[in-house]
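Journal club prep — side note

Before the paper discussion, L.F. wants everyone to see what a predicted structure for a comparable chain looks like in token form. Sequence:
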Amino acid sequence: MNYRIGLKLWSTNTGAYFQEAQRLYHRGIYDYIELYVVPNTLETLPLWQQLEIPYIIHNPHSAQGFNLADKAKRESNRAIYEQSKRFADALKAKYILFHSGKEGSIEETATQLSAFQESRALIENLPVYPLPNSPFKRCRGATLEELRFVKDATHCGFCLDFGHAVCSANAQNKKPIAFLQELMSLEPQMFHLSDLKDVHSCYDSHAHLGTGTLDISALKKKILPANATISIETEKDLPESLQDFADDVAYFRRLIS
């Protein structure tokens, strides 16, 4: 199985992580960068263009004020998306990932995403509940029905986030593997992978692989297709190094060997 492994970085990671990204790529640790575009950081784009590394773009989410489910944010959402589009165009990114948003309605999500006319768009599944410190109480795009609605209305693709899906299954009183198998009917183009500190929780934790309670071997056996594209979305604990990410990749590769 020849999985494509991705490193998640933010457009503001122009210091030590930028240098580490080059070093690890040339060592063959990973295959592409999934770059989260922080709003108003277009000045960093020329630096990212220097890397001869494939890219996937992650559009900002509600933490940076982007919320597709909120009708009042149509204008600001469009402005933020246009910045992500500039990154995607310049970096020749294959996909642009979007969250469905918080509160509001899934119909509004579909309306706004459709208006972008973005052929590279992938919608990412979310947990039912945001983190406890969030000002929001509900995420959109957490259920099969809402995700299918967005896909059908906008003709976008799909990114399956394993941690989000398990948390959503717990909130819906569904068995995680069964729910993941339901989500596979949406034919995901790519995946997000991290461990969970508590596999029975409704809240995501982005733990390092092998340090939590998620049965990653079962995901590999029952869910992951051969040659899948997988961004490892674990926490980064070292301010000057990406060794923890490299360790996560090594753990995953041992599982699939």
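L.F.'s comment for the group: The radius of gyration is 17 Å. Keep this in mind when we get to the figures.
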